[in-house]
Amino acid sequence: MNAETLLASKSSEIITTGPHVPLIEAALTLARRRIGALPVVDDCGEVVGLLTERDIVYRYAERGPQALQGDVASVMSRLIAVCGPRDMVSEIARRMTERQMRHMLIMEDGRMLGIVSIGDVVNSRVQAAERESRELKAYIAS
């Protein structure tokens, strides 16, 4: 299974934010949409960062409530984990684990195709293991 297959099982809507959006507004978007990360896109449509729940929590822990008065650019991660649509899920899982990242952007030719979470990756691996188990049991039974 590859990243493209993972994306096919998700909504095609990519929810983004801008670097100059108030942080509290972006945090509300995360909460309302029940998502863990927002790709940050500039006025030209270029991905310039990723805002995660972790980014917000860490900044809040450092600075207290006033941290939420800044903008997205003041908190977002600028080092973004990226993979291509044909990258295998096992490779994506390895890279996410190594970098301790929970979200990865799927990009092709400079265009964002979507975002996958560690939950998406784990779910696909569990489904594959269950499918393999069923196939092996069917083979043994025949």
Automatic annotation (TrEMBL):
Q: What InterPro entries does the database record attribute to this sequence?
A: CBS_dom (IPR000644), CBS_dom_sf (IPR046342), CBSX3_CBS_dom (IPR044725), Diverse_CBS-Domain (IPR051257)
Q: Which Pfam families match?
A: CBS
- CBS domain ranges (all copies): 8-68, 76-133
Kindly indicate whether the keyword Transmembrane belongs to this entry: no
Q: Which UniProt keywords apply?
A: CBS domain
Keyword Transport included in the entry's annotation: no
**PANTHER family noted in UniProt:** CBS DOMAIN-CONTAINING PROTEIN, CBS DOMAIN-CONTAINING PROTEIN CBSX3, MITOCHONDRIAL
Can you say what this protein is called? CBS domain containing protein
